[in-house]
């Protein structure tokens, strides 16, 4: 993962800083742009065929949300960016999917990058970069590909559910981020389930040789999720503390709420992390216990039969004068001795709790 | 645990932020509301049949405590909240039991969430969320279900014990939180006992295969308790530093006292945590020691009897010319040699401290 | 330890905050009160039969030290406290021996709690709580039982040694705390010796099965000492920075000196702590090394004699046609082969460095 | 590595502070100096034969970049330094290659030291110290030897690509540092690949005895990279916050971008570091698993054949009266018994999941 | 070490604070005092026979350095201290060699304590306390015994090398401290070499049973060096930030340089520390690998010969009717079977990669 990520970065090696180059792998994604424009009383929803169609919304007083899917269409993004006076580094960051969650404060807009997390078809955690630009009365959002967690947001705008239609762009940004953060909970829930399954498996001894590999994979997933979520806390905290007309005072309470959620998620991640490290310990202990058991079987078998075999060996010797060999009942006496030895041994191991 | 917790969160996934939805499992709990209204000279105690009955107390100058059990009754909570002008996010947090201990400061009230810890019937640590709203002359408290640690508080109000009846709502909140924090001490005392029992068990070798599972469970309990208690320190510290008429200067000394108690509890938790990690080490050492002992038995038995068996094998060979076989005393000489070898071996192992 | 500590706390569970209840175990201790009153020119030393006898000293301009042993006498402590206008929470903290070292700053006095450490008759580290109240021209000290480290202080007052008689109450508090902190050095010196003894023992293989238990005990002692000493650093640092006529500027240099000593002790504790954790590693390695040695002995014995026994077995077979059996020198040739095999094996193990 | 580094330091032991002494190993490197002088409209590129040739550029108003390769030529560096009024300690630091990345702020210039990382011919990570002096309208750069990552920078100046020709010396310094930081990404990408290869190798059991040595080497490489990169974050952050005419406000956005990149690299390094530590655990587990397997084979073989051999031994005894020996079918019955025992054993081990 | 250190402290237990008592072990050291007095144009160097001879230098305007070796001569130190108006606690700290590196700021002088590190004749790291008092135009230095790292400083004063003769006492203190810090580099270089030697030894399997003891010793050396060097960083940083005429602005750049060196040394120490901890892991792995190898040899030998011995045992039985015994070629057939079994086994172990 990190590997491919770095590889994508390398596409840019030696480029002029500020070059707008898409670093992801979905190079053939179709461009999709949608626009919402709403106020208390009405709303417009429109799929746009060209980025230029969105320009008209800039002039309205109503709140505008322009959502663009397909970061490979750098030209369209550049057009949009220039129309909204975005800094070249902002455009560069939008299409460079190796960003860390961050916030950059510019004079008349805020630029926020974060990570959408979801499980792909192979049940691996995938991260997708989402960038937001919050202006005076608009929010621009940029996603790598179709499919997102914003359907509830769209519904709310359409049906004027909740307070979204009464509020401004800063509240729109809030519910968009909130939708992403809410989804983090399901991600870590699945992680928690996996850890519990492992614990049960290790405890029941249903372990294969892959366990240590699997635990390593789990560690890496946790690290991936951590990396996507932890920096976001500071981002949200800075939005909350941001002093500008872009974020209204009454909206800050809501950002504080996202912050609380992120702290909850972070805490869970740290707990899971600690538990994964413990898993390895449990696994080591299980291995040691198994080896102990194997050793005990070997020791019991060897300790019982080696002395008996020695005794049998004694009377298999061919000396001419071995008095015992002549006595009629020696054989039976010997059996008796051996049975006694056998029982004695069993008794000894019983006392040592090996049986 | 974390799992179910997250599942409860999921009930809310895709909901409008600010929706007041109970996320706990006690959905069929009966509503119970009680009200205390008191001043220096008199007090009223009343069980309320409907939330509306509590509204009258808002007008009095005396201190009012309204305690509501049953977070599933979201409508009643909403009514109460609206009457006291609580922010929708506060109501949402009251019924969402996945909160972390926190304090939110609003213009004319403080909102405090914390966790009550107790042992359930299976002797597992259970957390229950308790929310407080502290206003100018009232305290609202919200609990998930009946049964709490507030009986001493009720007694004190009734019998005018201590200084509660002479003080204001901020002091009432203090003794309520103090009752919860005091109970933490018994929780961690039991944890301490469990750890000591484990230590004794491991040291005495009375260990079963479940030990590593049990230690893992103990770790998780500690993490649970930590998560409930640690953030509370900051909450109390912020109450102590809070600059508003809600918290009087002379009451702050008392909050400082709670803070000291929390530091004590936290310190103990950290010590227990460190000791649990050591337990695993002790357990590993015990396993290794046991394996060592098993190996020694095997080695002693094999080292003694394998050479003897070889000697016996020699004279069991059927060569026609083995001179020793003819001598009359060879058999007895051989026994002598074997006994010497046996004693030599014992001596050798004795010197190596294996016996 | 922690257990009993919590148990003592529990005595108070459900009590009104501010109740003055002794939580220690020395409930039948006799009350002992002594008073020193001195200035540059003269001093009075007096054992008091009742707490009321101390009241007269409050009026003098000279420096007064009242030392009370026996925290179980809560009534006397309350009387003294009321006479000196101490806050009820201060009195509660004096007799609740579960305090953490702390400083509470009140308007006209400082309240300092710390821990005296000493070895009891069983050579276990014991902590005893000592509380100080520093007023304008007096120091009150409260100890659980007789026997303390203040004899040098008493001598200095009596004999006007050092500068004590020329200085004020803040300097008296300094030499009292200094006496306690000086004693910490001997405590950690003994700890250091214990660790070194363990190291030597483990290194020399003189280890018993109790080692891991002993190391665990040592860890706990370190944690106990840490808990007593570490918070004191902040206490002293706050005295040094305290802005009030209670602490004179020229005395602060001396508190700075105590602070330096505490940093030294803390550093040693942290080093010891790290070394104890290493001890466990050393011990594990020792166990592994021992098992290795055991395994080598077994492997050498088995590898040498099992093949030889096989050869002997071959010629113990009863086939009618085994040509070798008829040759006159086969037996001796076989011995030769076996000796060669034996030497070869020894050589092989020598080369592998197992012998 | 650290060793040689210290050795190079020792060359200076006992020297007067401020002595300008080259501490690297490339003592015979040829001096190479190049100069770029450009403004919006034109540029000059020139290889200089003597350091004095560069002095003329100081007078121009255009932006000058003087790049010197060959730190062993201390005299030339001193001449250059004196011409630009550099502090003696700056000159000392330029040629002492044991510097940590740092920034020193002088009155009319900034001195920045950082590390260029690349893979040498043996595929080991090598660090080379690069120093920059940023003045009002010039940048001086000092490298130990030829070969650098600045070719894109040169191209951009020549071809007026990007905005470099329109900007000032502070932007030139930015693209120089950016070129170095961009290269860090390829370094850590290779590290990531190595770690993944190790994981795969360990998981597939393709491990040699050198693995623990190799992991140790990997740890050291990570530490080396960390040491080169981590302090740079603070350096860049201080440039960004630097208040002087040397760094223009609009350039700071670009330094912020480098800072973001460094945070990304640092995060990856920390993740790799954690994964390397896990590798060791995985390796230990693999070893334990292997030993377990070895033990199982031994135990199965011994447990099956030792009892059988004992039975055969019994009937190899030479007692005169062993009734079984006379029965015609005993031999075949015995075979049957042995086969049954054998099958029973197999069944037993099957049930224990050892087969 | 720590032990003896504490023991030395104990000499003081129960003493009046401020008592000037030497706590080191070199009680019979001869007193040695030397004085340098210099300005730009001339210098005086003089060995003093009595401390009083130094008093005259106090009156001069030139810079004076008085160096005293032999902390056991407390009376002379006291005389000197009183002449220079040093605080009694300063005198106490000078002769109490258990100090931590620290700086105490007094009204008209700075008191700096630090540790000189060197290897003693047994190649163990030894620390010696050096104290400096920096006054307006003088530096006093106090060492425990003869032999120091200040020869370069003396030479520079004598020969007017570098800028020392043009600068003031603050610069003199700088070059004295710089000489000590420079020497730290050789100390940690030797440490680095030791670690590398260990790594090579462990990797090559040239390990003795003392390895874990040696690693433990190495850990302790690192801790010792850390304790001497780490606090010094803060000391130097406080000198650099010190606002008083004692430290001139232009000298601060030089102290900043020492600070940079200390950061370098500290970083190396932390890296070495991490590597030592890894060493223990490597060692454990090596032990495990060795045990694995031992186990394999045992398993191969036993698995091959135990079944063969069983077969031989079969035909050593004395049953009257064993048909195979009569066939002429059974013996040779049996040999064939055994050889096949043997080869099969070898093949099996080869495939398992045990051979």
Automatic annotation (TrEMBL), chains A, B, C, D, E:
Keywords: Cell membrane, Ion transport, Magnesium, Membrane, Transmembrane, Transmembrane helix, Transport. It is found in: Cell membrane; Membrane. The chain crosses the membrane at residues 297-317, 329-349. It is a multi-pass membrane protein. The keyword Manganese does not apply. It comes from the Bacteria. InterPro entries: CorA_cytoplasmic_dom, CorA_TM1_TM2, Mg/Co-transport_prot_CorA, MgTranspt_CorA/ZnTranspt_ZntB. It holds the Pfam family CorA. PANTHER family: CORA FAMILY METAL ION TRANSPORTER (EUROFUNG). Belongs to the CorA metal ion transporter (MIT) (TC 1.A.35) family. Mediates influx of magnesium ions. This is Magnesium transport protein CorA. It comes from Gelatiniphilus marinus.
């Amino acid at each position: 993962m990190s590997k491919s990520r770095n590889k994508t970065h390398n596409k840019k090696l030696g480029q002029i800083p500020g070059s707008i180059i898409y670093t992801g792998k979905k190079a053939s994604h179709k461009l999709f742009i949608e626009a919402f424009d709403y106020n208390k009383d009405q709303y417009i929803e429109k799929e746009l065929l060209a980025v230029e169609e969105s320009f008209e919304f800039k002039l309205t007083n109503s709140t505008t949300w322009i959502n663009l899917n397909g970061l490979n269409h750098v030209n369209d993004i550049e057009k949009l960016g220039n129309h909204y006076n975005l800094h070249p580094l902002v455009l560069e960051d939008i299409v460079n999917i190796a960003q860390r969650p961050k916030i950059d404060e510019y004079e008349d807009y805020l630029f926020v990058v974060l990570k959408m997390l979801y499980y792909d078809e192979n049940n691996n955690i995938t991260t997708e970069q989402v960038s937001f630009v919050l202006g005076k009365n608009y929010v621009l959002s940029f996603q790598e590909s179709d499919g997102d967690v914003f359907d509830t947001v769209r519904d709310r705008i359409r049906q004027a559910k909740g307070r979204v239609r009464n509020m401004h762009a800063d509240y729109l940004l809030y519910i968009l981020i909130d939708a992403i953060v809410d989804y983090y909970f399901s991600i870590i829930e699945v992680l928690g389930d996996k850890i519990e399954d492992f614990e049960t498996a290790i405890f029941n001894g249903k372990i294969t040789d892959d366990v240590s590999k699997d635990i390593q994979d789990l560690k890496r997933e946790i690290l991936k999720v951590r990396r996507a979520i932890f920096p976001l806390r500071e981002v949200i905290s800075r939005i909350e503390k941001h002093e500008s007309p872009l974020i209204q005072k009454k909206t800050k309470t809501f950002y504080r709420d996202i912050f609380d959620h992120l702290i909850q998620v972070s805490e869970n991640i740290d707990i899971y992390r600690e538990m994964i490290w413990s898993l390895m310990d449990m696994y080591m202990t299980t291995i040691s216990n198994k080896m102990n058991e194997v050793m005990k079987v070997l020791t019991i078998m060897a300790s019982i039969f080696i002395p008996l075999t020695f005794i049998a060996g004694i009377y298999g010797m061919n000396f001419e004068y071995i008095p015992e060999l002549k006595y009629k009942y020696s054989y039976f006496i010997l059996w008796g001795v051996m049975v006694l030895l056998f029982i004695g041994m069993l008794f000894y191991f019983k006392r040592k709790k090996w049986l």
